[in-house]
Structure to design on (375 residues):
């Protein structure tokens, strides 16, 4: 068994990613954070800024500060002030997208974005104690619960409503509410997470697979791909939920991961496929960075739930990330997607994925003392 690269992960977080994205990823001219960087670490010509990306970067620098990288607090504040000034809508809620200069270019109220606003505000509150950040998190959840509640359970994924109903924004809402409950002890966050976990158990997840898109009565829209990365992500969220509530969801968490591990991981490279069919056949053999970080988190979640050894998955996924995705890049950057032949498919590095990498590695380091005691 290959060793788990705890030290390499720690070094990447604190010596590469945080300093690099603090220097190159912060837009000191127009405010906020850049959406993506090229292979030399320069902002691309991308002319928009998504609210979800700004929220994820606020999280990264807030968490970095809490872990001892003190400069992160100021950068977290930079993003927090920009977000509140530029993206908050008069009628409540938050915009989906800004121009590069900071004007609202898409005022759609999107549950995905709102989930990450709660996530960012909760981490900001943890690092700063800023009561305004706590209020923003509560107000945003109240907006969701009063303005976006849908029949048959759950919430509309956007206002105005378009297309099918989606599980993915609900997943991130559960993630955000668990963090918010930890930060504030407000029961409304835990109540909302419980509601979404019930949706997972009764609507999103059948005996084998996680649906992505549904009609208005929560029947799956046929022909859609299954994403093993989301299976792994839900495993980690369910484990977090069980740790906070004591409610037994470990069987669901394990089943979600087991399908993804059995069908969604390339047996040769250990890369997590981008998509499967509901039968478990490979629909997309490409692999982005983020599904591989979610495999790490799922292995850690199952270790906490039932003690199963996470080291094989940690070693193989970290080995892939460091050996393929980080290789041939400036420290702090990565190649975001590879095809089935291990050839790069992307040129730019998306800022949205710093969150995935930082969170996976920080979870590894949180559990390092316990993993080190395994025989």
């Amino acid at each position: 068994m290959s060793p788990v690269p705890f030290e390499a992960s720690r070094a990447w977080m604190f010596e590469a990613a945080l300093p690099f994205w603090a220097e190159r990823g912060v837009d000191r001219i127009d405010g906020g954070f850049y959406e993506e960087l090229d292979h030399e670490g320069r902002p691309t010509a991308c002319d928009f800024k998504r609210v979800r990306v700004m929220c994820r970067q606020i999280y990264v620098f807030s968490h970095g500060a809490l872990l001892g990288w003190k400069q992160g607090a100021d950068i977290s504040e930079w993003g927090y002030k920009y977000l509140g000034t530029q993206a908050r809508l008069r009628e409540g809620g938050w915009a989906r997208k800004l121009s590069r200069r900071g004007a609202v270019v898409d005022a759609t109220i999107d549950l995905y974005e709102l989930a990450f606003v709660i996530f960012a505000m909760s981490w900001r509150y943890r690092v700063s104690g800023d009561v305004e950040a706590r209020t923003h998190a509560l107000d945003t959840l109240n907006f969701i619960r009063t303005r976006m509640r849908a029949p048959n359970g759950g919430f509309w994924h956007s206002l105005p409503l378009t297309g099918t109903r989606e599980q993915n924004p609900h997943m991130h809402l559960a993630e955000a509410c668990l963090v918010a409950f930890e930060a504030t002890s407000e029961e409304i966050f835990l109540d909302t997470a419980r509601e979404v976990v019930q949706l997972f158990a009764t609507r999103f997840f059948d005996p084998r697979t996680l649906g992505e898109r549904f009609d208005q009565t929560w029947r799956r829209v046929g022909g859609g791909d299954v994403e093993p990365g989301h299976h792994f992500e839900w495993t980690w969220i369910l484990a977090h939920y069980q740790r906070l509530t004591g409610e037994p969801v470990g069987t669901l968490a394990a089943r979600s991961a087991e399908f993804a591990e059995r069908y969604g991981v390339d047996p040769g490279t250990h890369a997590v496929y981008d998509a499967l069919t509901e039968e478990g056949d490979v629909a997309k053999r490409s692999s982005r960075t983020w599904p591989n970080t979610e495999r790490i988190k799922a292995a850690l979640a199952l270790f906490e739930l039932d003690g199963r050894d996470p080291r094989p998955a940690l070693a193989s996924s970290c080995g892939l990330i460091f050996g393929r995705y980080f290789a041939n890049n400036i420290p702090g950057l990565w190649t975001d997607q590879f095809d089935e032949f291990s050839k790069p498919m992307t040129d730019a590095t998306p800022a949205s994925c710093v969150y995935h990498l930082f969170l996976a590695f920080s979870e590894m380091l949180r559990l390092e003392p316990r993993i080190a005691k395994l025989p």
